[in-house]
Amino acid sequence: MGAWRVRSMWITGLMCAAAAALAAQQAPPALVTEQEILAGLPPDGSRWLTFGGSPTNQRHSPLAEITPENVTRLAPQWTFQTGALGQFETTPLFRDNVLYVTGPSNLAWALDARTGREIWRYRRELPSNLTACCGLVNRGFAMLGDKLFLATLDAHLVALDRRTGSVVWDAETEDHATGYAATIAPIIAKNKVITAVAGGEYGIRGFIDAYDAQTGKRAWRFYTIPAKGEPGNDTWAGDSWKTGGAGVWVTGAYDPELNLLYYGTGNPGPDYHSESRKGDNLYSNSLVALDADTGALRWHYQFTPHDLHDWDATEVPVLADLTIGGQARKVVMFANRNGFFYTLDRTNGKIIVAKPFVTTTWAKEIGADGRPVVQAGHVPDEKGSLTCPDLTGGTNFWQPSYDPATRTFFVNAREVCMIFYAWKPDYTPGERFTGGAGQRAKSADNQPYGVLRALDPATGERRWEFKYLNLSTSGLLTTASGIIFSGDGDGNLLAIDSRSGKLLWRYQMGANMHGTSPVTYMVDGRQHVLVPAGTTLTAWALPR
Amino acid sequence: MRWAGLVTAALLWSAVGSSSSAQAPAARNPHEGNADAIRNGMGLYRSRCADCHGMDARGVRAPDLTQVWASGRNDEGLFNTIRRGVPGTEMPAFVPPRTTDTEVWQMLAYLRTLAAPAPTDPPRGNAQNGERIFRTTCAGCHRVNGAGGRLGPDLSRAGASRSRERLVAQIRRGFEDSGPGFSPVTITPLEGPPIHGVKKNEDLFSVQIMDTNERIQGYEKDSTKGVVNERRSMMPVYGPDRLSDSDLDDLVSYLMTLRGFNPAVPQ
User: Fold this and answer.
1) B63: containing domain
2) Are residues B251 and B132 part of one domain?
């Protein structure tokens, strides 16, 4: 007995010593720093820390193990299923061989990137009176320190402990019962979490918010519609600004050198009825450049003044430094729902390029003053008017990508026209407030189609295109080896040569990559491509 | 994906499910006759319903909605049909939060303004003879109550899903928009004669068909010499030379009696 006890103590002592030695070897998990986020995607593939890969939103990876030559050998490594209703629209984040993934209906997970096995799961109770217009979706986490940040469907911003998924703080941005919701992936700037709200179909007044990442205390708010007495409020007739919408539901970009955040804003409400809100309706359908410290507006560019076709400018802004006409330019590139592709000077919002990238009938061109030269006959009424593009637009919230080596901007575009109708609506808080509708125009000779287009951002000219049979709503990922990963409108995951547009490889996923794009990273020395589609995540790599 | 759950046309008249609802809708449309509701309903109808039911609601590949009230349906039943959809057809459920109760009533308020009175014309045609004509002329491709071919749409609910005028027009003049699952297609294999059939699904790389022998099969496009989509429906045109006016009356009279699969009908 005594001998046993002695031996037991001796063993216990050994174990303690071993644990201490182990602890010395295994430092606590490194905190995510803002420097890492700003550095973007590293050549070693060790992280994907923010929505667009880097604050530029280029979604271009330096990884090159998977090449146009060997991509046909890609093999599935594992599949994760949400086991829940609703679809992924998310960009997974990756760090230390762990994936952080948001799903539909306020679900989220930490997954082992080696096996796809769940480490923790977060679930938030949904209130019964949600007013999310367009699906109970979420576009991804932001990450800083030991925390993850999630914008919830009931318009809260919550911070989760990265190691457990438990809530660290919970901030209400606005009362969801009055039409506010959030689906956006937040980003980090100056140790603040930048988020925003949806609800342009419910008569909200949109805003972009910044919260202290440590405490959840709000640092600033920028209203996308100026209040009475503020510059721009006179672009709304009467009290129409109060229910003017201009939600923000797609993630913006950040330039730390200029200290500017760039966000696209949503449509004015009611969506289609002109008489209800005469004027330009600032800052709806605009790109706004905000001071990252204060949220003050530094400049804006309105793509579609007095929009009547629900053309939210909620597409993803992409930053790059280009040489145009022999001059070095800091630009922001923007393929807009209204059918035009824009390259703007991101220091001041002035237009460098504005050119249609799909069939566009509502405006002849963008004038030298930056305003569209509008064509007659495109004001919706009760009889209906035919306009291209349709309300979903030339493109939409799905992510474009940009290859800085070839200076090519890639976008999944749509060739669709629509008959738009409008009538005078009544406003009831929490009820839909659109004042119209659209019917897709098609005939045997004019079938809508989706198409991947490669554009030169210095001219807006098309370099190549890859046509789909149906409309694609997939985001994009490019790699330094010259591959672009996309999804068509029929559930196919596609690998395409980013220099020629030639199809290299395909796989039928069984669901569209709706609003998702693959991300890529290294696990144990092998490049992985992770693809969210429908209710599944599938990781691909070359065979060992 | 587009054509998942392929069946015949969506049949709005028929199925009102028996499932209970926690919050029962008002028995009568509270928005009926309200001008604002009708205008809202018009837009909602045009954007969400008109593709299948037609801008004039007289039916394209889904039923004619102008006679639903005349045929005996009531507001509550129609509300439930829109809310729950019609299982086994293309008619989806329009559910909250995307579609509010108010919006469903607004659509119905608009449809009410298009509603036609019950037909007063004396019934034409002999349905019994029409059934005989159907069995000899149509049943090679169309199925009714479990008997007949599968290449064309099942017509067990033809009387509920199509107006008399539309049936006459399709039989007499044929048509181009065959609807999902019935578009004619010709596949030329690398070896052997062309295969004719109707298209069940397609993506960039493959096509799935039912051929004229009712064989369902998928083909990789790379492994064929070509896949050609035809415009005209596979349904032959029956002019007066092939089907007299009187026989047409009899046939349509029979089709109008078909209101849903009835297993009790002797084959």
Assistant:
1) 24-114
2) yes
- Based on the fold, state whether residues B77 and B171 are members of the same structural domain: no
Alpha-carbon distance of A186 to A163, in angstroms, equals 19
Query: B229 to chain A: nearest residue by CA?
Result: A444
* Residue B150 exposure: Cα atoms within 13 Å on the Cβ side: 12
Same-domain pairing of B40 and B103 = yes
pLDDT beyond 80 at B239: yes
Q: In angstroms, rounded to a whole number, what is the distance separating the alpha carbons of residues A347 and A56? A: 14
Secondary structure E strands in B76-155 = 143-144, 147-148
- A422 CB neighbours in chain B (<8 A) are 43
- In chain A, residues with a C-beta closer than 8 Å to the C-beta of B202 are 469, 490
Rounded Cα distance, A134 and A370, in Å: 31
Task: Kindly report, residue by residue over A500-511, the tens digit of the pLDDT.
Answer: 999 999 999 999
Which positions of A are catalytic? 310
This model of the complex carries an ipTM of 0.79
Chain B interface with A: residues with Cβ < 8 Å: 1-2, 36, 39-40, 42-44, 46-48, 50-51, 55, 97-98, 100, 102-103, 176-177, 202-205, 231
- CA A490, B217, B170, B4 dihedral sign is negative
Q: Are residues B133 and B240 in the same domain?
A: yes
Residue among B36, B47, B175 with most chain A CBs within 10 A, to mutate = B47
* Residue found under tokens 């001008």: B35
Q: Tell me which residue in B1, B36, B46 faces A439 most closely, judged by beta carbons.
A: B46
Residue B31: predicted pLDDT: 93
Radius of gyration of chain B (CA): 20
Residues of A within 8 A of B176 (CB-CB) are 444
Residues of A in contact with B51 (CB under 8 A): 439-440
Q: The pTM is what?
A: 0.85
Q: What is the per-residue pLDDT across A459-516, written as a single tens digit (0 to 9) for each?
A: 999 999 999 999 999 999 999 999 999 999 999 999 999 999 999 999 999 999 999 9
- On chain B, the residues whose CB falls within 8 A of the CB of A492 are 203-205
Contact A433, A453 (CB under 8 A): no
| Contact assignment for B42 to A469 by CB distance below 8 Å | no
Q: A133 and B176: CB-CB below 8 Å?
A: no
List A417's β-bridge partners, or say none. Answer: A441
Q: Are strands A477-479 and A60-61 parallel, antiparallel or unpaired?
A: parallel
Claim to verify: residue B62 and residue B168 sit in the same structural domain: no
Q: Which of B39, B98, B204 sits opposite A469 (nearest CB)?
A: B204
| B163 confidence band (pLDDT: 50, 70, 90) | confident
Considering CB atoms only, which of A133, A425, A490 is closest to B203?
A490
Q: What is the token pair recorded at A335?
A: 């393929």
Mean pLDDT of B117-142: 89
Q: Are residues B28 and B110 in the same domain?
A: yes
Using CA coordinates, name the residue in chain A closest to B50.
A439
B146 within domain boundaries: yes
**A439·B39 Cβ contact <8 A:** no
Please name which of A106, A116, A103, A96 lies closest in space to residue A49, comparing C-alpha atoms.
A96
Average the pLDDT over each of A149-153, A171-175, A276-280, B213-217 and give the range with the smallest value. A276-280
* B152 plus B249 within the same structural domain: yes
Domain count, chain B: 3
Best CA proximity match to A149, nearest among A222, A209, A61, A206: A209
Calculate how close chain A gets to B51, using CA atoms only, in Å: 8
CA distance linking residue A67 with residue A529, whole number of Å: 12
Say how far apart CA B44 and CA B26 lie, in whole Å. 20
Taking only Cα atoms into account, the Rg of chain A, rounded to an integer number of angstroms, comes to 24
Percent of chain A with pLDDT over 90: 79
- Contact A127/A81 with Cβ under 8 angstroms? no
> B31, B78 in Cβ contact below 8 A?
no
In a shared domain, residues B152 and B63: no
